[in-house]
Amino acid sequence: MSERATPGGPRVLHVTHLTTGRVAELVRHYAEEQVASGLEVAVASPATGSLSLDVQSAGARSLHWHATRRPEPSAAEARELRRIATRWEPDIVHLHTAKAGVAGRGVVPRNRPTVFQPHVWSFDGVSGADYRRAARRDRLAAKAADVVVCASQSEKARGVGAGVLGTPITIIPHLVDLRRFYPKERTQARIELGLPLAVPMAVCVGPLTQQKGQDLLLACWPRVRDAIPEARLVLVGEGPAEHRLRAVATPGVRFVRSTDQVQDWYAAADVVVVPSRWEATAWVPLEAEATGRPVVTANVGGVVESLSPASTIVNPGDVRGMAAAIVRSMSAGWGPEDVYRVRTFAESRSGGAPRVLDTYRRLLRKLRMS
Question: What's the whole-model pTM score?
Answer without folding.
Answer: 0.83
